[in-house]
Amino acid sequence: MADKPLNIAIIGQGFMGRAHSNAYRQVKHFFDVPLEPRLKVICGRNPENLARIAATWGWEETSTDWRAVVERPDIDVVDVAAPNSLHAEMALAAAMAGKIVLCEKPLAVSVEEGERMAEAVRGAPNMVWFNYRRAPAIAFTRRLVEEGRIGQVFHYRATYLQEWGNDPTRPPGWKLRRSEAGSGVLGDLLSHLIDTALYLNGPIREVSAMMHTFAAGRDVDDATLLLARFANGSVGTFEATRYAVGCRNRNAFEIHGSRGMARFNLEDLNRLEFFDAGDARNLQGGRNLLVTGPDHPYATNFWKPGHIIGYEHTFIAALGDFLGCLSSGAGFHPDFDDALGVQRVLAAVERSASERRWCTVE
Amino acid sequence: MADKPLNIAIIGQGFMGRAHSNAYRQVKHFFDVPLEPRLKVICGRNPENLARIAATWGWEETSTDWRAVVERPDIDVVDVAAPNSLHAEMALAAAMAGKIVLCEKPLAVSVEEGERMAEAVRGAPNMVWFNYRRAPAIAFTRRLVEEGRIGQVFHYRATYLQEWGNDPTRPPGWKLRRSEAGSGVLGDLLSHLIDTALYLNGPIREVSAMMHTFAAGRDVDDATLLLARFANGSVGTFEATRYAVGCRNRNAFEIHGSRGMARFNLEDLNRLEFFDAGDARNLQGGRNLLVTGPDHPYATNFWKPGHIIGYEHTFIAALGDFLGCLSSGAGFHPDFDDALGVQRVLAAVERSASERRWCTVE
Amino acid sequence: MADKPLNIAIIGQGFMGRAHSNAYRQVKHFFDVPLEPRLKVICGRNPENLARIAATWGWEETSTDWRAVVERPDIDVVDVAAPNSLHAEMALAAAMAGKIVLCEKPLAVSVEEGERMAEAVRGAPNMVWFNYRRAPAIAFTRRLVEEGRIGQVFHYRATYLQEWGNDPTRPPGWKLRRSEAGSGVLGDLLSHLIDTALYLNGPIREVSAMMHTFAAGRDVDDATLLLARFANGSVGTFEATRYAVGCRNRNAFEIHGSRGMARFNLEDLNRLEFFDAGDARNLQGGRNLLVTGPDHPYATNFWKPGHIIGYEHTFIAALGDFLGCLSSGAGFHPDFDDALGVQRVLAAVERSASERRWCTVE
Amino acid sequence: MADKPLNIAIIGQGFMGRAHSNAYRQVKHFFDVPLEPRLKVICGRNPENLARIAATWGWEETSTDWRAVVERPDIDVVDVAAPNSLHAEMALAAAMAGKIVLCEKPLAVSVEEGERMAEAVRGAPNMVWFNYRRAPAIAFTRRLVEEGRIGQVFHYRATYLQEWGNDPTRPPGWKLRRSEAGSGVLGDLLSHLIDTALYLNGPIREVSAMMHTFAAGRDVDDATLLLARFANGSVGTFEATRYAVGCRNRNAFEIHGSRGMARFNLEDLNRLEFFDAGDARNLQGGRNLLVTGPDHPYATNFWKPGHIIGYEHTFIAALGDFLGCLSSGAGFHPDFDDALGVQRVLAAVERSASERRWCTVE
User: Fold this and answer.
1) Secondary element (H or E) of residue C98
2) SS3 label, residue D358
3) Closest-CA residue in chain C for A284?
4) Which of A159, B60, C79, D267 could pair with C102 as two cysteines, CB 3.0-4.6 Å apart?
5) pLDDT on residue A27
6) In whole angstroms, how large is the CA radius of gyration of chain B?
7) How far apart are CA C70 and CA C91, in angstroms?
């Protein structure tokens, strides 16, 4: 029986437009789902660029009028990959039009926006592209947590370290303008850290944060740092920055519990360091796991054990799981509600940084 | 102007069939070449499996009669990805039929076969899938060598360490049968090491080798080790094995020269360790390069700096370069002649292991 | 000419008593100073243990009456290595008796104590055993900072991770009692981090901190975490804990500036990772420096390049430098004033944790 | 009861003279043995240097006439740390005089010499300074082998990589002259690798080797490489060189067996990577062991877990164990017979390199 087609419209033609396009193209090669994504329309503001990306990735049509596209009856899915400040408007329009809505992170630029968005899609399939949950090593860490192999968590420590903020040769894009990005590293990088933390370690109760801008004249945060208390009694530190010279894309976490430790860095996304406190004392040591199988998440989807995957596969896996849920009717995570949870933490971070005191996540 | 279509027939439906299929599907997304691969026919012996893989990857047709397929006038390219012992017959038939021939490694199971194959394709575009040359870190090492950053080479050291030979639960496949594979790790793993060595360090003059089979009743080599003298005066060691418990897929080299060192391991294929002997003495140290740009090979083809690629991208890049050469008329390497050079070294290795003395590469 | 003898009395027979004894025994083997430490008296509360340690390390006498010893005219140097709560009383008595005073870290259990101690020794040679400043890699980082190789600092990140707090089999010692230790990780571990930070990155202006005790019934902090703003405009995080399961003794820092990065971990104390942002873009990478020479701090004192030193050598080097200063009349650092500076930061940390807001270092 | 004094005479004032002096000074601080080494005489050819080293380390006397010294009735132990070509004559004289003989490695410059030396000391306590057996991580590997945690060994791989051979600024010492050193890296570096291999993996049956000199006019080997077959059925590669630019002192081994893997590098001498093939498949990974306790060799002798030791401690531990055996009457290893075993392998290596064929170890 032929797979059911699923007509996709994407809004956004930047780096995420490319990463999502690749996921649509590749998902069926690695995930056995009875749905067939069709790349119908790609929307954006720059027609020339649009034509080029559409040709490269095989989008059937291009459009500079996303509002018209989300109304089209032949569109099943609207994928919002535009600058952050536009997410709410686009997602709300798509939801209103009855579409399945997929949205890039951060979900929104405020909790209020996020609440309206989550409300709008409630009950319908939806997804937010916190793709790193599908890095096999992160998914595997979640499994370790669930199996009790970390035990009672004491410490959680996360950094997202980039360096391009300090590069004067780099052309300023929308990510450096508050009007479009809503924030700097808060929404861009810290949102990833928080989503992973909530996924692995549960709710955050309160935070004490600072936000800092190094560059003169920039109106977004170059660095955001915080202390956190989790609901499970553990304590944490988070640091997101674009001024960590020496680090290209170091999205990393460490989690220490009564039974073990896990340590991850996206620059080595196929690796997980796992420490088992139950090993004999003289045989204890961080285990350098190559999370490419056997018996690892997504090991049967991609290549063979020892054959590593890349950045793009986290998007493919997220989409593969989403389509699987769509087909089976199961709930997919992270959804808009999950991303709203991230948004609430980000709001507490901003409040704390502004008021220079601990703030509760509300 | 529309890209010129290029009709592909592939013979082989195993792991390489999958990896090549992916490359055909993906190449145009990352390489700007005026040729459009069309996945026409996939050939193999097992019809059920064929149908499944054809459906997954979008091959238009399947066939269990490769001989008929290579004769079809609508086929432009024949890609040989069958067990090693069949390469010669298939490649010769395809060359005879005037096709562009692509062949998996090792090219052949003997020098004599390899010579006939290289002769048959001479003058026509052809390629051998020594895909690791296109790992960005390996291509970058070649550039370092060419720029003189390694200097006069003293030592070359390479290992290809796998562990599955020792796994009794693993079903024996064609790779463990001499009749189909021609050899064990010699053709499977050592061929990769030798191709990389010839690419980076030039011709090998002579070898002293040993081949060993650990498993009772197995008629192929589980491990092959050798010492080598290169034409440039450097000396080397090579070790390929399926009994290196603890190593999933450690394809690694180290090269020491008068001006620097480079060190690589495929399990971290986005990394290269580079040591510059010209640095101030107290600032000398292996540099941990994340070879994802800027200014690295293939950095503009795939993602952004700091966003890693996976195993499959080495195939995509090999194909991308091949199509670029096909389009421009430039010569592509590694071709059948290059692979024949590898074969000559493998033959000297076998001879040396058998005669227990140093043997010249002829 | 014979070296001038220097008669030492030490108060303390624990782990530090041993580490200091070793330093006195070894210093002349590696440092060419015209002073000869003589191990005169070791003081402590447990006579049996005292006799044993005196015999092992060659202390001429033992005493359970430190007050009498510090008054002895034949004693030149009093080395305070007793539990933290006793430092002030002992150091003050020794200073009053006109001795050269050496004191273990943390200097005191309060700023008020520290101020009195610093006042008491002002003008006389004195030293605090923040021994890690003499880890060659840390001393070398300081040199890199001074030479401008890090540039304008953006981020400073430090952790001191131990795991024994969570070990129920471990006998509780004085370090777990507020009455003797004054605090938990604050004085024990964080003090080291702060001293190193002040040494490498200058004064801290303000902090936002939390202190946490995981173990029921314990009256000292098991973990202390903080955010910091430095006077030079950089921002930092600090984390000290005894609940970092998986980490034996991970005293680590990372510093990112406009021109480079440095990264260190005491568990690999002979290593420093250094990133030079001035390298060609495609050759940038953390350099794995083995800080054993040539041209590294203390390289000519100990062994040959590539021959690593251990934990104890940081004490030997501190003592060697101190004796050199004593002999030449140069000022030694860290002295009581430097350690008082650490104390002021620790006090701000405690205040901030208690008041749940940012506090200025006063 | 007072410890029994043991009067030491050492012949040699170079780097080993210093390392041994340190061991004599330190051994009683870390090892509880009822013997007290007394540093009586240090012998050498250069009186000025002798006086300086004697003053630094506290040797009571100096002498330029080692023959007279080994005859002195007040000397109990003669420690031979002179250039290799003198070992035989000195050790034989000392043995003849009834002394306890300790000898630096390599034992001799020929098997014939070694046989006479081993014969001369047979029945009396003796020791060869293959100090690396006492690196805690190497001693622990031996324990892992004995406990069956490595299982049936398949592969052994060892390298000793130094780079100073290529440094034209370095003054040529006796190590670069065949007349004094007997050989180049063969005796200097390969001997260490072979001793460790025999200790961990048992006898070597046959070898195929090459020796190479890169520097014009040098009469010793700059690099020696070999393949080996062990008596236990495993196969191995060895490589010792002074031309491995980028490596200060990389004395490393890897051992793969049916049940696990161990990997070591002297530049990180407190670390051992251990892979347990018995772990669940998805939790298998090289464990990064910090071999500083608990339950590791020498953990109770030196510092606390997490507090690393340095190069010199391998000498202290060797001496500590030797004195323990001397006191208890137990046999110590490695002794002259063990070192003769190494010599037999080195001889086979030289023969094989010369005859360009496999040679049996005789």
Assistant:
1) none
2) coil
3) C246
4) C79
5) 98
6) 20
7) 9
> Where are the CATH 3.40.50.720 domain residues in chain A?
4-131
Sequence-separated (6 or more) residues with CB below 8 Å from residue D210: B208, B227, B229, B235, D224, D225, D226, D353
Q: Which of D239, D246, D286 sits opposite B260 (nearest CB)?
A: D246
Q: How far apart are CA A151 and CA C361, in angstroms?
A: 37
A239-279 pLDDT per residue, tens: 999 999 999 999 999 999 999 999 999 999 999 999 999 99
Domain C4-129 has CATH 3.30.413.10: no
CA atoms of B281 and D147, how far apart (whole Å):
43
Mutate to test the interface with D, among B204, B235, B283 (most CBs of D within 10 A): B235
Place of tokens 């069939």: B17
Evaluate whether D95 touches D101 at the Cβ level (below 8 Å): yes
B237, β-bridge pairs: B157, B227
B159 contacts D157? CB cut-off 8 A:
yes
Place B1 in a pLDDT band, splitting at 50, 70 and 90.
low
CB contacts of C261 in chain A (<8 Å) are: 244-247
CA-based nearest residue in chain A for residue D136: A282
| Whether the predicted pLDDT of A1 surpasses 60 | no
- For residue B188, how far is the Cα from the chain centroid? 9
Q: Residues D114, D119, D124, CA angle at the centre, nearest 5°?
A: 115
**Minimal C-alpha gap between B244 and chain D (Å):** 5
Length of chain C: 362
D208 touches D236 (CB < 8 A)? no
**Which pair of structure tokens corresponds to residue A285?**
């040591």
List helix spans (H) across D97-227: 111-121, 136-146, 178-181, 185, 191-201
A308 neighbourhood in chain B, CB within 8 Å: 267-269, 308, 310-311
| Closest-CA distance of chain C to residue D61, Å | 17
CATH number of C132-332+340-355: 3.30.360.10
* Lookup: tokens for C310: 């251990």
Cβ neighbours of B1 (radius 10 Å) = 4
Query: Which residue from C minimizes the CA distance to D162?
Result: C306
User: What whole-number distance in Å separates Cα of residue C241 and Cα of residue B57?
Assistant: 52
Into which CATH architecture does domain A4-131 fall? 3-Layer(aba) Sandwich (3.40)
The CATH 3.40.50.720 domain(s) of chain C lie at: 4-129
Complex ipTM = 0.96
Query: What amino acid is encoded at A158 in this protein?
Result: A
What does the alpha-carbon distance between residue C291 and residue B300 come to, in Å, rounded to a whole number? Answer: 36
Two tokens at D19? 């390392």
Structure confidence at residue C171 (pLDDT): 81
Contact state of C155 with A223 under an 8 Å Cβ cutoff? yes
Distance CA C92, CA C80 (A): 10
| For testing contact with chain A, the best of B303, B314, B315 (most A CBs within 10 A) | B303
Which residues on B lie below 8 Å from D225 (Cβ)? 227, 235, 237
Tell me where in chain A the CATH 3.30.360.10 domain(s) lie. Answer: 132-332+340-355
| Chain D residues with beta carbon closer than 8 angstroms to that of B226 | 227
Neighbours of chain B (3+ CB pairs under 8 A): A, C, D
Chain D residue numbers with beta carbons less than 8 Å from the beta carbon of C269 are 308
Q: Which of 3.40.50.720, 1.10.3720.10, 3.30.465.10, 3.40.50.1240 is the CATH number of D4-130?
A: 3.40.50.720
Laid out side by side, the sheet with B126-128 consists of: B61-63, B35-43, B4-11, B77-80, B100-103, B126-128
- Please say if the pLDDT value at position B245 is more than 60: yes
Q: How far is residue B262's CA from residue B243's CA, in Å, rounded to a whole number?
A: 26
B311 and A307 in contact by Cβ < 8 A?
yes
Burial class (CB in 10 A: 0-12, 13-18, 19+), B216: exposed
